[in-house]
Design brief:
Layout lengths: L3 E12 L2 E12 L3 E5 L6 H8 L7 E6 L2 E2 H4 L7 E4 L11 H11 L5 H9 L15 H13 L5 E5 L7 H12 L1 H5 L2 E6 L2 H7 L2 E6 L2 E7 H5 L3 E7 L2 H10 L3 E4 L5 E6 L1 H13 L4 E8 L2 H14 L1
Parallel strand pairs: 3-8, 3-9, 6-7, 7-8
Antiparallel strand pairs: 1-2, 1-4, 4-5, 9-10, 11-13, 11-14, 12-13
Helix pairs in contact: 3-4, 4-5, 5-6
The chain binds adenosine-5'-triphosphate.
Adenosine-5'-triphosphate binds next to β2 and α1.
């Protein structure tokens, strides 16, 4: 059975009279990559601190591995790896030397170091001084450090912050496949939608201290999107499709845009145009991006 590794049940948090989280409810399934999205100040770090027992909730219940958080921590920390601030690395050491601190502290066999270096793809650089590493490599090394001892849950606060495009891509590849490669569930917070969209299997969106959306990435993006059609008889196409209750508009390039269509409906659109002798030379379907979903949710929330 697939259990929930993290459960927040109607959790609220106030700092004196300032309520920063209201009835936050979400769950993170085992072996998923869970993206926690929100703008600056939305409440992401507060949620992570509550999850790690660094703060107490004002109301509500938090469970990790099916037990109240206070019972799991701190003994359960062997099951949890986290990076919430910029990791401190000893730059004059090699990666192997650096990792050997935690390996010995956790009383693990030496071969654990080789295993985690392999997972984060740093084996080839293990004898080089950390001072020569890029920021992305340092971040991956910090993740390797948390993976020593095979934690079942990895919590990362904004792990791609400050990385260059290559560093971001490497981090993306690493996080996406961590459940498979290291057998752990990943909780990753970010304000970078495009990053989360490429990494996460499940997503929650927090806005002003409230969860405004939570679902699998596929469900959140929905199956519908926009169909762009290039044709000469634009107004005829518009009439034909509008009569069939499709939502049509045109863009600056003179293309016809049919919004909120599923892939099946795209086939109907093509059929209708052909049947009514409207020639088109190009048609492309674009699923809505997470950014669109996120902006819609944020606007709806701001208006309410
Ligand atoms: N210790 C504290 N005392 C008072 N207010 C706090 C405290 N910690 C956080 N806050 C407030 O709670 C709100 C949420 O902050 P939080 O750091 O959780 O947001 P965030 O989504 O992590 O933002 P960012 O992406 O900027 O780090 C903010 O308004 C912040 O000012």
């Amino acid at each position: 059975m697939n259990m929930n590794v993290i459960e927040f049940n109607q959790v609220s948090k106030s700092f004196q009279y300032h309520k920063v989280l209201s009835d936050v409810t979400f769950s993170v399934a085992q072996n998923s990559v869970f993206g926690f999205l929100g703008n600056n100040g939305a409440g992401k770090s507060t949620v992570i601190k509550l999850m790690l027992g660094m703060l107490n909730p004002s109301h509500g219940e938090i469970r990790l591995f099916n037990q109240p958080v206070k019972q799991v921590l701190p003994a359960g920390f062997v099951n949890i790896g986290c990076i919430v601030d910029t990791p401190v690395l000893y730059e004059n050491l090699t990666a192997s030397e650096f990792l050997s601190f935690s390996q010995r502290l956790k009383n693990l066999p030496r071969k654990e170091i080789e295993r985690v270096l392999e997972v984060v793809d740093l084996s080839a650089y293990k004898k080089q001084s950390i001072s020569g590493y890029s920021l992305g490599m340092k971040q991956r090394l910090a993740i390797a450090n948390t993976l020593l001892g095979s934690p079942k849950l990895l919590i990362l606060d904004e792990p791609t912050n400050g990385l260059d495009p290559q560093g971001m891509q490497d981090m993306r590849e690493l996080l996406k496949y961590l459940p498979e490669r290291a057998g752990c569930t990943v909780f990753v917070s970010s304000h970078l939608l495009s990053e989360i969209e490429r990494i996460a299997s499940h997503i929650a969106v927090i806005h002003g201290g409230e969860i405004v959306k939570q679902d699998s990435l596929d469900n959140l993006k929905g199956t519908s999107g926009e169909l762009r059609i290039s044709c000469l008889a634009l107004s005829k196409a518009n009439v034909v499709l509008s009569n069939a209750n499709f939502h049509c508009s045109s863009d600056q390039d003179g293309d016809l845009l049919v919004s909120k269509v599923t892939r099946e409906e795209c086939a109907q659109v093509h059929h209708l145009l052909s049947k009514n002798k409207v020639d088109f030379w190009q048609s492309s379907f674009c699923q809505q991006s997470l950014e669109n979903v996120f902006m819609k949710v944020s606007h709806q929330k701001a208006a309410s």
